[in-house]
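A further point concerns the way the authors explain their paired sequence and structure data. For illustration, here is how one protein appears when written out as sequence plus structure tokens:
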Amino acid sequence: MAVCPSTPGRAVDTVASAPRKGPELVPCLLIRRGEVCLPGPDGPVPARRASGGEFDIFDIIDRLSPNFPRLYFVDLDGLERNDPQLDYVQELSRDMPLWVDSGVRKSDQAIDVLVAGAQKAVLSSSYLRGPKELRRAWKLSTELVFEVETMDGRLEKVDPSWETTDLPEIVRIAREVGLGEIVLSPRETEPDWALIAAISAGGPTWVDGTFRPNDVSRLGPAGAAGGIFHIDTILAEMDSKLSSGRPTERDGTATRDDENQNQLNHDE
């Protein structure tokens, strides 16, 4: 999972939030040791309310689950310490379908994630130990997604056993094994929409990393299946409502998060 800071100079995002056809927007939740995090300039940092308090994970799920088709759950303990938070996968999957990126290194770890309740386990080019583990995982389950993480347009820290650092080639290998769904996760740079279109031509492709909801209008023309975005704007809106005593989304009030979804529905 490419965890990227907001790009300076970009407009404040509004976030999609209604059932729809065509490209989807999927929120991304980062958790480290049970604490919600957001991207920072040097990596994920704890998300804090204006008061300094923590956000409650289950309040966030209450906000997201009625409005989005699934949650992209990034388990930072799994990525950073190879110690996945399977208890959270189990709990959160009761309320919302999960695609879980826990830094799977070996095939059996993907199965652990699925048994805990994930809809799909994410296998990343930055963590998976080569094509042999990819094939082993596919033999055990087909509920898998392959993420390709890039830095400045180049593959990020790929295991030598892949025997290539060419992005289209690694995508070809994954799709040849059987993994149709690809997540492209650029870091530090804007999404390369020409590359996204080329990868999307071969099968369902999701845009992660530096993708922001303001990029929503570019998903359809590129043929992308959807975009995965960080929830900083949603958390800010939740905090504002909690601080002012106003009702939250789960109490039935609408928010400005509908704007990009309405745009997508109009484009249909």
Q: What stands out?
A: Confidence is low (pLDDT under 50) at residues 5-12, 16-20, 250-258. Residues 24-267 form a domain with the TIM Barrel fold (CATH 3.20.20.70). The CA atoms of residues 82 and 103 lie 7 Å apart.
